[in-house]
Amino acid sequence: MSFLSEIDGALADQGVRPRARRQIVDEFRDHIACEPEAVARLGDPTALAQTFAAELAGDEARRCTRNTFGALSLAAVALVAGQLLIHAAGGYPDYNKGTSTPLALAAIAMITIAPQVAFAAGSLAALRAWRRRRARQLPDAEVALIHRRGAVGRTAGIVTCLGMLVYVANDTQRLAGWWLIAQAAMAMVALGALVAARTESRACATTVGAVSGPAGGLAVDLPPLAWLAARPWTAWAIITTAAFLATAAFTGHAEGSLVEGLERGGLESIALGAGLASAIALTHRHRS
Amino acid sequence: MDPYGHLDGMLLAILAGEPAHGYAIAQALKQRSDGVFDLPEGTIYPALHRLERGGLLRSEWSTASGRRRRTYRLTAAGQRAVGGARAEWSTFSAAVQAVLS
Questions:
Q1: Does the distance separating the beta carbons of B64 and A44 come in below 8 Å?
Q2: Does B4 contact A at CB distance below 8 Å?
Q3: How many CB atoms are closer than 10 A to CB A14?
Q4: Which of A197, A224, A235, B67 has the most other CB atoms within 10 Å of its CB?
Q5: What value of ipTM does the predicted structure carry?
Q6: What is the chain B residue with the closest CA to A51?
Q7: Global confidence as pTM
Q8: Phi and psi at residue A246, in whole multiples of 5°?
Q9: What pLDDT, in 10s, does the model give residues A36-82?
Q10: Which residues in B lie closer than 8 A to residue A27 (C-beta atoms)?
Q11: CB A98 within 8 A of CB A174
């Protein structure tokens, strides 16, 4: 087997895309044509292919993360703008007076829970990619971690966009036409960007990395988390208080009612606090 | 001697003279080092691609004797990087020399 066919096969095995593969093989073909004996000095085709793939994988992971973060930002703008403008379009309609109550509840759940997951996963993917922006090569596990966080963020972002569209479809009779059109258009644009980012990510050079999950290595990305991980109940208090304050402020403003904001903030912090407390208790029991 | 730690700087320095294709760069590296840096020639290509992705080089495809050829040249950022690499090496080698002697 010739050097050129060997390296072409090795690059394909490493998941290098056909266009990049053709260019690499063409360069080696020119090199050998300049001096046929040089083929013996080029090095091991498999090792060269691994070097190309490792460098491409890191770059592609960083590029995919940038695009994912950009697409998630569009989804965030669509969601926040829609919520801030809803007052001018008639205010929040009662959830049980739309086309379908189950559909309304599903849409509310989608636009309430999914954005939080998308924000966390997308930010963590971007943070890890940014921290390693100058690294020539990233270890397989790190590339896999960045891709996995990005995938979770994109999926949650897509669910958020679908939730906005369901919300619009369920309330066509009760909200102003301009708001419905604007919200649907923004959601569609963000959805398109997220689907494009997902397609791009799937075409990236393959890596086989062992990674615990999207939350793996959090203490590396966010050093204060290492401190909080050792004090779970302090973390519990900080997170539930922050959730209460943020929800109270945001919904209080959106509803134009401090009482309403405090009520929703209380419910959010109780739900989040209960979930976190369960997780902490289960982790503690598992360790002991 | 392990040239890999300084490969990027050496590739940039070779291209500071004039644009060149991969084979010519490999030969220049060997000749300028009097054969000391006789590394596997294929290893310069991942480095050239990395430097191009980093904006320090740009490449153009042409046809030579009926086959495709990729020629690399420095960008403005690459020119600045050569100066930086030379200054860094000068400081480093002077420090090593001072310690060894």
A1: no
A2: no
A3: 20
A4: A197
A5: 0.89
A6: B46
A7: 0.65
A8: -65, -45
A9: 999 999 999 999 999 898 888 888 888 899 999 999 999 999 999 99
A10: 22, 45, 70
A11: yes
